[in-house]
Description:
mainly beta, Immunoglobulin-like, five-stranded mixed sheet, four-stranded antiparallel sheet, 11 strands
Amino acid sequence: xxxxxxxxxxLLGLGFLGMGCGSGNHSSxxxxxxxxPQAGASLLSVTPSGGATGVSRTTSMVFRxxxxxxxxxxxxxxxxxxxxxxxxxxxxxxxxADRTTLTCTPQGPLSPHTSYVLHLGGGxxxxxxxxxDYAQYGPMMGGQxxxxxxxxxxxxxxxxxxMGANWRDGNGSYGMAFNFTTA
Length: 183
């Protein structure tokens, strides 16, 4: 197994173990303002899902949430070339009328046969002020927790601590990443 794949499997395993252990209060897996296991809205779907291959170079990325999201949360969504520390690709994002679906479209075609990473900040909040709960569905869609020590501890040339408050989740991660490869 490649080192990156082994680390990913280990981190995903830790996420699943964390969901099944303890007193039943899993608020540590959600953002800092969450209260109880169902307090945050869930990330219901990601297109393309993590691990997808042969993705169209002109695809839009679509995120569906279980509750209306707060204004400005689209600023905590990035598309990186290669890995989370890679160059950020410019894109335009817009919300559905009920703010439960975010559609992001790259400003130009993506490179062929290239790996990309969709990165959602860990502290994304709902309109009601609740933290987004990635733990419930994120790993099932191929998502990986983004930890500060991964990829040399940098995010597009800035240290992890320089990313801002809403990139950090209550579980210590910097959100969730979904890798895909273009056709």
